[in-house]
UniProtKB/TrEMBL annotation:
Species this protein is from: Agrobacterium pusense
Domain DUF1468: 17-136
Protein name, UniProt field: DUF1468 domain-containing protein
Keywords noted in UniProt: Membrane, Plasmid, Transmembrane, Transmembrane helix
Domain of life: Bacteria
TM segment ranges: 39-58, 70-103, 109-127
């Protein structure tokens, strides 16, 4: 089992290399603004770097997996994807983060709402306002 675990960082590194290579085919920058491949390229590079750092560990870290919590995250992500088209990015991201922070992470209500609001709307402002990347607006066009 330990041998298989030691191969995981290398598997993730190869996935990161594939993602970065595909992203380069999409292009990183076009017409003075980010192209379709920029974000996947950055994600691929981050996956490569973190995987290689993990590969250097001498002892794999064993942490118990809380299956209920993992499934709650999966359900939240699926609901986020569904809500994205219905209510738009900003509100879907806010609801997703608020539910995850309150229900799964058990944060204080005020802290969770502040973090969810700040992250959801600053991300929306960054992509829509600064980078001119259109995000899903939902049925209300928000």
């Amino acid at each position: 089992m330990t041998t298989i675990i030691r191969l995981v960082p290398y598997l993730l590194t190869s996935i990161g290399l594939g993602a970065a290579a595909q992203a380069l085919r999409l292009g990183l920058w076009a017409y003075g603004e980010p192209a379709a491949g920029l974000f996947p390229f950055i994600g691929g590079v981050l996956l490569i770097l973190t995987s290689l750092v993990c590969a250097r560990e001498t002892e794999p870290v064993w942490e118990p997996v809380d299956l209920t919590r993992l499934m709650a995250y999966c359900v939240a992500l699926v609901l986020f994807c569904v809500m994205l088209e219905l209510i738009g990015f900003a509100f879907a991201a806010f609801l997703f983060l608020a539910v995850v922070l309150l229900a799964i992470e058990r944060m204080k209500t005020t802290t969770a709402i502040v973090i969810a609001t700040a992250f959801a709307f600053s991300t929306w402002g960054l992509f829509e306002g600064l980078l001119s990347v259109p995000l899903p607006r939902g049925v209300w066009g928000v």
